[in-house]
Write a structure and sequence with these properties.
The protein is of the alpha+beta class. Helices cover 23% and strands 38% of the residues. Strands 1, 2, 3, 4, 5, 6, 7 and 8 form an eight-stranded antiparallel β-sheet that branches.
Length: 167
């Protein structure tokens, strides 16, 4: 993400929140309007805050996105919880991007390598992000929360905020 261009502060914050969390949960909407979740490895984050993934053309994810492009991507780790909402796009005919995102572990799903015809590029144009930070050490937080609920201590449970990626 190095460049001379200025990165939007909202995008920069989003990048900082999820940079060290590689596994995301993608939530899609099925044909029957049922939510479906699947874990994915975030392959890339664009300068505009867009997220890139490699999925199978025959997956439930692709079928659901063909039904509705509205998705949510959630991350959790190191005392941070992030929920990003946006629009999914199935990107075709960008073999250069597939090669850019390719890594050896994908051979488990795509035996023909980065030229496997089953590979589908998935781009999420993130529009809005909600996050919570500083919620580490679960037992300590539960005890602090109990003190807060009982009125014995006025504490701050962590930072919460929203980011508008697409202004």
């Amino acid at each position: 993400m190095e460049t001379n261009e200025t990165i939007d502060p909202q995008v920069k914050k989003f990048c900082g929140l999820v940079d060290d969390i590689k596994i995301a949960m993608l939530v899609t909407i099925s044909n029957g309007n049922v939510l479906h979740s699947a874990p994915l490895v975030t392959q890339d984050m664009g300068r505009d805050g867009s997220l890139w993934f490699l999925v199978s053309k025959t997956s439930q994810i692709v079928m659901n996105i063909e039904n509705s492009s509205h998705v949510a991507v959630t991350y959790a780790g190191s005392g941070k919880f992030v929920s990003a909402m946006g629009i999914a796009e199935l990107v075709n005919d960008d073999i250069d991007k597939i090669h850019q995102l390719w890594s050896k572990p994908y051979e488990i799903w795509f035996s023909q390598g980065p030229n496997d015809p089953k590979i589908q590029l998935l781009k999420i144009e993130v529009e809005k992000v909600e996050y919570w930070e500083g919620h580490s050490y679960p037992v300590a937080q539960i005890l602090k929360f109990a003190k807060y609920v009982t009125g014995s201590e006025n504490i701050k449970m962590g930072d919460h905020g929203e980011l508008n990626i697409r202004h």
